[in-house]
Design brief:
Distance between the termini: 7 Å
Order of helices and strands: EEEEEEEEEE
Radius of gyration: 14 Å
Number of helices: 0
Largest sheet: 4 strands, antiparallel
Structural class: mainly beta
């Protein structure tokens, strides 16, 4: 089944290439970075040991690096590129005429993402 999203407007984070920041969108902390000119959004905490992702850095290959154990995740799709098998949640981002929007997955009646 295809993912469906609710779209939420957020303020332009005003960050430069490979800078990291956190914004709160709909009560949820979301990490942001720019890589190759595009804006990317991903989980606030590392899926391995809950390191705060914006305390890390973005490497030359476009991976955000967790500050705790140096696990690397693609900012484009959340894939773990250092080989540990984890996955970092990513969020779709769109720039529209009226501003920036972040997609949060719609949740079913039982609280299950669909």
């Amino acid at each position: 089944m295809a993912k469906t999203y609710t779209w939420h407007r957020f303020a332009d984070p005003g960050i430069g290439e490979k800078e990291l920041t956190v914004l709160e969108v709909e009560g949820k902390k979301i990490s942001f970075t720019r890589y190759e000119g595009a804006l990317y959004a991903f989980a606030y905490k590392c899926p391995h040991a809950s390191g705060i992702m914006v305390d890390g850095w973005v490497d030359e290959d476009g991976n955000v690096v967790c500050p705790l154990h140096r696990y690397r995740f693609s900012v484009k799709n959340g894939r773990n590129t250092s080989g540990e098998g984890y996955f970092l949640k990513t969020y779709p981002v769109e720039q529209r005429e009226e501003g920036w929007y972040l997609g949060l997955e719609k949740r079913g009646d039982l609280g299950v993402d669909f």
